[in-house]
Amino acid sequence: MSAQRDMKEKNPWHTPVTIIFSVIGVIAIVALVTVAVLQNRPLPQKYKYGIVLDAGSSHTALYIYEWPAEKDNNTGRVEQTLSCKVDGPGISSYASAPWKAGKSLTKCLEQARQKVPVKRHSETPLYLGATAGMRLLNLEDSSASTKVFQAVEEALQKFPFSFQGARILSGQEEGAFGWVTVNYLDDRLEQNLQTRGALDLGGASTQISFVSDNFDGSDSPDNAVAFRLYGNDYNLYTHSFLCYGKDQALRKTLAQQTKSGPGTILDPCFHPGYTETKNYSVLYDSPCVSDRKPQGAPATFNHTGKGNFSRCQEVVKRIFNFTECKYSQCSFNEVFQPRLQGPFGAFSAYYFVMNFLNLTDTSIPLEVVTERLSRYCATPWNQVKEQHPGVKLKYLAEYCFSGTYIVTLLTKGYNFTSENYPNIKFIKKIKGSDAGWTLGYMLNLTNMIPAEAPDSPPLPYAGYVSIVTVIALLLFVLFIFSLRPLWPRCSKHPQII
Ligand SMILES: O=P(O)(O)OP(=O)(O)OP(=O)(O)OC[C@H]1O[C@@H](n2cnc3c(O)ncnc32)[C@H](O)[C@@H]1O
Ligand SMILES: [Ca+2]
């Protein structure tokens, strides 16, 4: 018994001094780690917002973006938090009743008012950018386009956001901001990775934008956009083809077939069994075709489908001019285009159409794509309607043409081949945000992409806390050992007496 008591007395860990120091040490470490964790713990997130209205030729869409409030000019953090499709056609269609253009936007703006917290309303920038529909209206009737903008601005100013104006984007801006969006969402800019080209197919225009090593802008300055983003320089090639969006290209293709003003056209780009009576005045009511309106044509014509892919491709090819090129190389219509390079993202109508046709997988060889399109175009119209009861008839009737146009534009227009066709990815969204020019436009106007790479903390948060903990433990152990002289002496091999 007395021997056991002796042992207890001699155990150094049981002296009051050591116990007190140990308790203090443990409390100190816990306090240190708690303070480090609490101090660095992410606070409940506060967000800032930006709103962009994409006033396209076929429709308008509103997008709300949000980003953490403390990361205004930081990287890769802006995300789309709401999209709202405006009911009705694009604002350019309201030329004869401009006030309706303004009114059409209010429903989506009401949604935005609900979505953005009230205390952020007045600081939330609101932009409206119009694309090819308004470009065409402006060409056709600039005072009508001014009136549409006045009506739209009046409507937007009624909302509590910080309205920054409504304007027409140039084709270069539309192409370049689409490219910025895609590469920003893919984190390719911040990380200085190989960039992805952007292919945008709208209703009235189409854009191609990419970085090519053999393009510095000297060949064709109109197609060059220079950016310095996160400390890297980019010489972007971009071109927008007005009148080569899907709807205007269809008009051009029909115009090709109605040069002589026939009463009936047998159209290989529409399904067999499709037949509609159409108005010549409606078909030619666009600056893309108005100069070719046949003289003395009847008021209407019978538009009848024949469903033949290869003949459709022949007609579609005729809307491109491949004969003239004053540069080393061209896409079409005498437009310079450097050698295609890198991966591409194809969005808007490229995606809608290829998704409907089950052709978004670009590992499907081009020959198989054309075979499938041939079969699809040859399918009788009644059968197509039966197979897709929920699809809008206008879209359904046009998928054969649209698919043929996309394949022709990519291969004959831009010179994609069987080898580099798999470099294209058909995309709708990237990480929850729609691919399109709007995000790039807002990032640019809010200076949210810095020209130089931002400084980042040398350690990530978890690494920082771990290092603090390890050093604290080490200090504690050293501290205990420094108290060694105070430890009661004990023999290495206590003997039981
Ligand atoms: O860029 P611009 O030329 O101004 O036109 P937009 O912005 O209005 O054009 P979109 O990308 O919204 O749409 C491109 C085309 O795709 C059509 N479209 C939209 N949704 C579609 C769908 O589900 N299936 C087929 N076509 C669709 C639409 O009518 C247009 O003709
Ligand atoms: Ca568009």
Characterize the structure shown.
GO terms for molecular function: apyrase activity; ATP binding; GDP phosphatase activity; ribonucleoside triphosphate phosphatase activity; UDP phosphatase activity. The structure is a single chain. The protein has 497 residues and is of the alpha/beta class. Helix content is 40%, strand content 19%. It has helices at residues 2-10, 16-40, 98-115, 132-140, 142-157, 171-185, 246-257, 280-283, 309-317, 349-356, 366-378, 381-387, 393-413, 437-445, 461-482; strands at 47-55, 60-68, 79-85, 125-130, 162-168, 197-201, 205-211, 224-229, 232-242, 264-267, 275-279, 300-305, 344-348, 424-426, 429-430, 433-434. The strands form four sheets. A six-stranded mixed beta sheet has the order 8-9-7-6-13-14. A hairpin with a 2-residue loop joins strand 8 and strand 9 (232-242). The longest helix is centred in the N-terminal third of the chain and has 25 residues, at 16-40. The relative contact order is 0.14. Bound molecules: inosine 5'-triphosphate and calcium ion (CA). Inosine 5'-triphosphate binds at residues 56-59, 90, 131-133, 202-205, 245-247, 348-349, 352-353, 356, 395.
Number of domains: 3
**Which class do the helix and strand fractions yield?**
alpha/beta
Uncertain stretches: none
**Percent helix range:** 25-40%
Whole-angstrom Rg? 33 Å
Proportion of residues in extended strands? 15-25%
The outline comes out as elongated
Describe the sheet with the most strands. 6 strands, mixed
The CATH architecture of the largest domain can be named as 2-Layer Sandwich
